[in-house]
Amino acid sequence: MDSDSDYSDCHSIYSDEEEGLDDYKQGGYHRVIIGDMLQDGRYKIQLKLGWGHFSTVWLAYDFRSERHVAVKIVKSSRRFTQGAKEEIALLEKIHSTNPNSPGYQHVAQLLDHFEHDGENGTHVCMVFEVLGESLLSLIKRFKYRGVPAAVVKKVAMQVLLGLDYLHRECGIIHTDLKPENVLVYVPNVETLLQERFHIHGPDTLPNAPDNNNNNNNNNDNVDGDHDKTAILDQVDTKGLTKNQKKKLRKKLKKKMEGQKRSQSHRNRENKNGQITSSILDFTAGDQNISVYENIVVKIADLGNACWTKDECVHLIQTREYRSPEVIIGARWTEKTDLWSLACMIFELLTGEFLFDPRPSSKYSKDDDHIAQMIELMGDKLPPRLTLDSEFSHEFFDRHGHMKHIKKLRYRDLHDVLEETYRDGHQLDLLTEFLTPMLQLDDNDRAGAVAIMNHAWLHE
């Protein structure tokens, strides 16, 4: 194609939620056209799945394995190329370490990787299995009133297995565990692709969705701020009039918006620009718990993961799932993932954030975040965090007391659950389950193996 307008008009229903066309330049995105062939004809591009600051993701047909895959095409600049190669090293470790481990099946697998030469440079490409909706979509489906405990228990156990595999067997820390980055495995993905997008094989392109489908506006496939997902952005608009195209754009935009989260959820921080390979809402808006009885989930998006052997102190994690040691600038370990998991489980059960800090004229958002942690757990942080960490002086005086927030309003985790957890069942057990993962001192925080045996998961 000779121009950006040709590209957008023919192959995508562009909106403000699309990647900027200005980034289609040397060092930037690779220009992809539906029907393109990659890796010497092995992969045929069929549908755009999403985009992020680092890359775009596409549904493709793999002629060798005779199935559909998600192809992540990274920007071509040296910085992004190096980051992609580091991610591949982590993903290959995950793929090869121990396929027989119980946690192996609960981590999304890299199937292939290669480099592709394009007009904007050489792009690293990663190939993943196609997965379903994220846990954030599940939270939305239940209207932020909480996912049924029986489902959350299954999810929690599987994520713990996945984390144990990453931490203990692979020596990897995820560093960005949250609902957006845990995806539902879809066993009959090829059938669903045929039903939802009318894709029957390598020679077919997706058609416009059936106007008479039963999906409603609560059927939201957008996977949060880290997923600028455009499930139906690549429909075939040939033969439609200009007015029909306009109506279709409006319908698709409305469908993608779905039910909006509360203001705090809409304001999630998005500084990493990550995306996932999720496209399929396998439940079609169903809130019937029986649909989820056999749910299988996989931890995805290891773009920010690192090795446990590294001395890590840099800023990680999305705000609401960030551990105290990370905020304060102390060295962190795999235990930081367990903190995130506890926050995620609370959100799944209640539909609300466990920690939702806000700044004021007297203190920062980080100040408020730390204060909320101390108020909830009722513990004083150890001196290595209040005195000896990189940012200790910003938050604490020499006695370990907070500098900018003098009056703390302590609240018990059990009481918070009583107020926010609508199910209300097994509150004591649930509190006991979450508490070991929320220890302010990560030296005292439980690991994945210890948590797996807790009674709440098995009753």
How would you portray this structure in words?
The protein has 459 residues and is α+β, with helices and mostly antiparallel strands. The protein has two domains: 4-99 and 108-130 and 187-257, Phosphorylase Kinase, domain 1 (2-Layer Sandwich), CATH 3.30.200; 311-459, Transferase(Phosphotransferase) domain 1 (Transferase(Phosphotransferase), domain 1, Orthogonal Bundle). Helix content is 33%, strand content 13%. The protein is built from 16 helices and twelve strands. It has helices spanning 4-11, 78-97, 135-141, 149-170, 189-197, 242-257, 263-266, 324-328, 335-350, 365-377, 383-386, 392-395, 413-420, 427-434, 448-452, 455-458, and strands at residues 37-38, 43-51, 55-62, 67-74, 110-118, 121-129, 131-132, 172-173, 182-184, 278-280, 297-299, 306-307. The protein has a six-stranded antiparallel β-sheet with strand order 1-2-3-4-6-5, covered by helices on one side. The chain has a two-stranded parallel ribbon with strand order 7-10. β5 and β6 form a beta hairpin. α4 (149-170) packs antiparallel against α9 (335-350) and α13 (413-420) crosses α14 (427-434). The protein is globular, with a radius of gyration of 22 Å. 43% of the residues are buried.
